[in-house]
Amino acid sequence: MKNVTDSFLSWPPAGSFGFNTDILATNLINLSVVLGVLIFFGKRVLNDLLDNRKQRILTTIRNSDELREGAIERLEKARARLKKVEMEADRYRSNEYSGIEQSRLNLIHSISQTLEQLENYKNESIRFEQQRAINQVRQRVFQQALLGALGTLNSCLNNELHLRTISANIGMFGAMKEITD
């Protein structure tokens, strides 16, 4: 086999044109020419593509930073609003608790007054019932005494005593009439 380095070193004589039949040597030369052309012309295109990509990435980063800052600002505003609402809720809660406590105290006071009035009504009712019971007992005792006195009078009285009593009463009534006239 032929040495590869020999094909690189053997050039056709000057002024002649010929084909190099060594495939490896010609591929390297072609490859280096193609790479040189690609690098020369593709460098600008590749730089433009990379610059465009770099600009899009930077724009995306700036936009995301702006969005993040906006989100942080909205978050701070929301936290401030939340804190304000919590303070207001605490104030309402404390006002509501004091209002409930005041209502409870008013209700207790009202119930206390109502119980006192009911106690007074009960005591008045008891006194009234006691007085009525006493009056009923007095009336029965009086009726029993009258019945007893009538019974005693009816059993003790005879016609003569009855006529004398009537005469004495009439006499007393006449004497009273004369005094008043």
Count of individual helical segments: 3
N-to-C series of helices and strands: HHH
Number of domains: 1
User: Uncertain spans, ≥5 residues at pLDDT below 50?
Assistant: 4-9
Bulk shape: rod-shaped
Largest sheet: none
Give the CA-CA distance, first to last residue: 190 Å
Q: Number of DSSP strands? A: 0
Percent of sequence in beta strands: under 5%
Mean pLDDT: 82
Q: Could you estimate the helical fraction of the residues in percent?
A: over 70%
Secondary-structure-derived class? mainly alpha
Global Rg: 68 Å
Describe this structure in words.
This protein is mostly helical. It has one domain (30-168). Helices cover 90% and strands 0% of the residues. The chain has 3 helices and no strands. The N and C termini lie far apart (190 Å). It holds the Pfam family ATP-synt_B. It is a single-pass membrane protein. Residues 61-131 form a coiled coil.
Question: What is this structure, in a nutshell?
Answer:
The chain is mainly alpha-helical. It is built from 3 helices and no strands. InterPro entries: ATP_synth_b/b'su_bac/chlpt.
